[in-house]
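Backbone-to-sequence.
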């Protein structure tokens, strides 16, 4: 990535050229953006003059949004119903995955080979590899365990399976471990694998650290890779002290896999040669550097198949005016993203920890819910809050309740009671997003 050799001015010039090229392509090939950019000259346009776009509106017009007229949402959804095809090329030969719906609306994202090449390069060249990579750049001596959602076309598991399919070197070294299974089984699987690297979500890493401190998880990883949720300094210290190894936390999204890369100082640097991330207030106006915005607007300069231009990502970011001690020319940022609670349910005299992402995955993928919030009201009492009860049929509510009951019983939480209520979310996370899972202690 030659851009890393230039300074801020060279990066800004490169970013401007790529933005103009994206605007020209989107205006020429996307019927939706042809209308949105009507009267705008890509060569003269300022970023702030471009319209803000949002997931719900874009998804409603998916076939007009993408730049390949042969690509249709119905075909993509049919493809994603087949879990055996996770990580394989979808309609048109494109990579396909869906977002987890953390903002209340799941998105479907498609990437062509050019976009995937950019993501691969950013992951391989911008990550601060440990000294082990100098003697083992191809991970020949490593066993990597991905702990996450493995049952759907999500970006994480799709990337893992794609890498195994494309590179035989990784075929026997990348392992997937579902976080939907009971903790005892998850721990047993990890103990059998003895991974040297664990890749997972921060909330999952914290639970694994607790299992390690309790003596049940006996792995000795050299690195823990985290992403997908906000990781506080306290969480990082807890995991690092438990395992005695470094935690490498990165920032990405389904809309752009490698948005920001960590440096050797432990800070995040925006990959601004391929992504523009604007920190804005509630009126989509830029906030001064050093201040936390209300949301972030993403412009993906790598994906021309599905243009993302000033797309409301929903995360809150702070862009620092000062540079980093590592010397990187890329902007230094802080991120407040998804921040859900781990539930601690007490049933039949025992406590069971339930990961928030696992809970949401079950309700979305098996239960069929989209807009919801799960609130713990007692040791074994959960309230499912929906915006409009009329939109949740008795059949859908029953399906969601059965899916949730089945999952909770599988992880050892039997006898949990459910209640349905209608209304606004009871709590928002520090990032401004609706907090989809709220623990009992958070309501105190």
């Amino acid at each position: 990535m030659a851009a890393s050799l230039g300074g801020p001015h060279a990066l800004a010039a490169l970013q401007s050229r790529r933005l103009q090229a994206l605007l020209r392509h989107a205006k020429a090939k996307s019927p939706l953006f042809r209308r949105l950019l009507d009267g705008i000259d890509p060569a003269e346009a300022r970023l702030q003059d471009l319209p803000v776009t949002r997931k719900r509106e874009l998804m409603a017009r998916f076939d007009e949004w993408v730049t390949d007229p042969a690509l249709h949402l119905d075909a993509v959804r049919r493809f994603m119903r087949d879990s055996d095809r996770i990580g394989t090329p979808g309609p048109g030969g494109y990579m396909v995955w869906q977002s987890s719906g953390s903002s209340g609306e799941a998105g479907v994202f498609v990437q062509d080979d050019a976009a995937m090449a950019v993501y691969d390069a950013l992951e391989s060249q911008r990550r601060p590899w440990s000294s082990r990579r100098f003697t083992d750049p191809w991970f020949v001596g490593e066993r990597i365990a991905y702990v996450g959602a493995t049952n759907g076309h999500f970006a994480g598991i799709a990337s893992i399976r794609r890498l195994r399919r494309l590179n035989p070197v990784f075929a026997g070294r990348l392992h997937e471990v579902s976080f939907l299974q009971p903790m005892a089984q998850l721990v047993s699987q990890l103990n059998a694998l003895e991974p040297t690297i664990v890749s997972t979500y921060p909330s999952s890493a914290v639970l694994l650290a607790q299992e390690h401190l309790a003596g049940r998880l006996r792995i000795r990883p050299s690195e823990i890779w985290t992403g997908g949720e906000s990781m506080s300094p306290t969480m990082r210290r807890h995991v690092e002290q438990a395992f005695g190894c470094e935690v490498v936390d990165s920032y990405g999204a389904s809309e752009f896999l490698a948005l920001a890369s960590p440096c050797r100082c432990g800070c995040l640097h925006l990959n601004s040669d391929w992504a523009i991330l604007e920190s804005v207030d509630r009126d989509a106006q830029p906030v001064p550097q050093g201040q936390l915005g209300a949301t972030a607007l993403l412009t993906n300069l790598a994906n021309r198949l599905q243009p993302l231009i000033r797309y409301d990502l929903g995360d809150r970011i702070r862009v620092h005016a000062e540079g980093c001690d590592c010397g990187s020319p890329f902007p230094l940022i802080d991120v407040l993203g998804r921040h859900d609670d781990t539930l601690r349910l007490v049933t039949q005299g025992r406590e069971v920890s339930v990961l928030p992402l696992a809970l949401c995955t079950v309700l979305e993928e098996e239960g069929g819910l989209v807009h919801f919030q799960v609130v713990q009201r007692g040791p074994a009492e959960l309230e499912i809050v929906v915006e409009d009860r009329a939109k949740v049929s008795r059949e859908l509510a029953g399906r969601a309740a059965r899916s949730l009951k089945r999952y909770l019983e599988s992880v050892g939480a039997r006898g949990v009671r459910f209640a349905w209520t209608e209304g606004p979310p009871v709590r928002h996370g520090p990032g401004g997003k609706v907090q989809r899972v709220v623990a009992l202690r958070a309501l105190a």
